[in-house]
Amino acid sequence: MKGRFKTLAVALAASCAAMSAPAVADNHAGPNMNDLLNDADSTGDVLTYGMGPWQQRYSKLDKVNTQTVKRLVPVFSASLGGEKQRGQEAQPIVYDGTIYVTGSYSRVFAFDAKTGEKKWEYNARLPDGIMPCCDVVNRGAAIHGDKIIFATLDAHLVALNRETGKVIWNKEIGDYKAGYSATAAPIIAKDMVITGNSGGEFGIVGAVQARDVNTGELIWDRPTIEGHMGTMRGKDNGITGTTNATWEGDLWKTGGGATWLGGTYDPGTNLVYFGTGNPAPWNSHLRPGDNLYTSSTVAIDVDTGKIKWHYQTTPHDGWDFDGVNEFIPFDATIKGKKMQLGAKADRNGYFYVLDRTNGKFIGAHKFVMQTTWADGIDQKTGRPNFTSDGRPGAPSGADKGKVVFASPSFLGGKNWMPMAYSQDTGLFYIPSNDWGMDIWNEPIAYKKGAAYLGAGFTIKPIADDHIGALRAMDPKTGKIVWEAKNPAPLWGGVLATGGNLVFTGTPEGYLKAFDAKTGQELWKFQTGSGVVGSPVTWEDGGEQYVAVMSGWGGAVPLWGGEVAKTFKDISQGGSLWVFKLYNQ
């Protein structure tokens, strides 16, 4: 009996000790919703696109700083291999010693975070008829529990086992034969995976979908063009807007408005913010009216899938000024008042600040050299002051309309590449481009699966010494604090850190680091191909790491015209680069 009581006492003591011991993360189970919500504050991993649900792309890590960055050296470079090169626009996800990246042609890779050894690779089986408008890119994945989730060029959403790369579920989000595709990194909110769609140049209808993260089953679907019915668990959930309120006739049925860049999530307001693309076709004379909800930001209630507010940056868009650019929440005190705000550097060349709780316009300022389509934003109404001769003319019969010069070009003052916000400086760091275009309208009719533009264009530089410019902007004043010019267009994301650094890449192949306060270039490294991905940083074993994808591509080589010819000799590639400080 004594032996039995002694054994029981030991067991009870062990049990009590276990209960009083601090909780240890179960990495095998994978990150949960709380982990994702805390990603902006955690430093040992990168669990979300944008490094936190607000996607400020800021890390408080400061071991790599203005003094030490000169000692930043490569740890490894991991090749994506094969002949599937093209643009590598992904942002890495880092968890439990593994780096997950997506690659061109809808691929996913898992690499050892210390050695670069490939653990597994997944290649989506793409049909021959895919119709991506702007290269075969993919911008990143989401992680949740045992899953890595990403979108494919044939408009599917796929969940893979994060340890093996095996498919858990695979769901279609659109008909690729009608021009639908998908390239954005999904976001996770309340155990739902939320994503948009691509294909605005083919007359598709933009939408945001929420799916059960464990099964992939559709929970709600919200179209972003007025007149289309939303759904909630298979039942009608209300029409978006009011049919024909801002679209005449039937053009709303193929109205564009693709949500191709994905969204941000604000747990405080319970809203996801998605930007919407250009209306279809580009020929604005065919579709009088504002054409809601194209070229806008829409705020959608996470629980109901209904639009709570919208703000349209380019009403009646006639220049392909997609409003998909990311809407980044931030808090600030303006004129003594604490405010819940959001900022967006729009493709149309203006930087907007809105009240993120209700979409109220706070202010807008130009962040590029020129905006010929408008001579400013009305600071009371928030609507652009259109110039009298800035819109391309209507075609006459089979003849094209009047050619006009417009700036920015349709590739935008800022395209897809995400900006960053520093909690230290209070500045936004915008990867911008200064260029223009000759643009004209042409006759066009919708045909399923065919390009639906009704416009022609020729892109031109507008400055002798640069196209790209990394600009630091004060959201309180709209003033540009500093700029760092670059000969080639900037096409990669930005990272800000507590080390007073800003990282971004260039098509010439460099990953660069700048002083966040002054814009002084402090460090650069040649990766061998254009850098059009988004850098991230994390710490492990007391050391800070920085990673970025390298691989030239995206829309510029395909659509850039004379500008693209200037940089035609840039080598393609596909690789993940990881850096840390060299300890002397």
UniProtKB/TrEMBL annotation:
Disulfide links within the chain: C133-C134
Signal peptide positions (record): 1-25
TM region(s), chain numbering: none
Binding annotation for Ca(2+): E201, N278, D320
Residues reported to bind pyrroloquinoline quinone: E89, R139, T183, N415, W416
Keyword Disulfide bond applies: yes
One GO location term (cellular component): membrane
Listed GO MF terms: calcium ion binding; oxidoreductase activity, acting on CH-OH group of donors; pyrroloquinoline quinone binding
Oxidoreductase in keyword set: yes
Family recorded in the similarity comment: Belongs to the bacterial PQQ dehydrogenase family.
UniProt name for this protein: Alcohol dehydrogenase
